[in-house]
Amino acid sequence: MTFERLAIEVIGWGGAAMILAAYILLSMGRVTGQSRLYQWMNVVGAACFVLNSGYNGAIPSAVLNVIWAGIGIYTLGRIASFARTDPG
Asked: Using an 8 Å Cβ cutoff, are 47 and 69 in contact?
């Protein structure tokens, strides 16, 4: 196995662990769907999946994860916007 291939696999498994951990935290009530931590974990995890899927030619998975990351980025923008306009 080449270093490149190993790196791609480690990135993919890291992304899987990140998304799984985010879901566990959400399910346990430790974070909410509107928390920055939860959204960042999903964005980073999805980005890792995009790299892994794209490298391996799994285009449907790559597209799904681009959308997944986009939803997370959009939500982070909404969270930031709300924080700027909330006086309390």
From this structure: yes
**Other C-beta atoms within 10 Å of 23: how many?**
15
Domain limits, the chain: 3-85
- Give burial (CB, 10 Å; 0-12/13-18/19+) of 81: exposed
What radius of gyration do the chain's Cα atoms show? 15
What the block records as the tokens of 72 is: 């997370």
Closest CA to 16 of 45, 44, 38: 45
> Measuring CA to CA, how many Å separate 75 from each of 37, 60, 64?
12, 23, 17
Quick one: tokens of 69? 């990351």
pLDDT in tens, the chain (88 residues): 999 999 999 999 999 999 999 999 999 999 999 999 999 999 999 999 999 999 999 999 999 999 999 999 999 999 999 888 766 5
What's this model's pTM, rounded to 2 decimal places?
A: 0.91
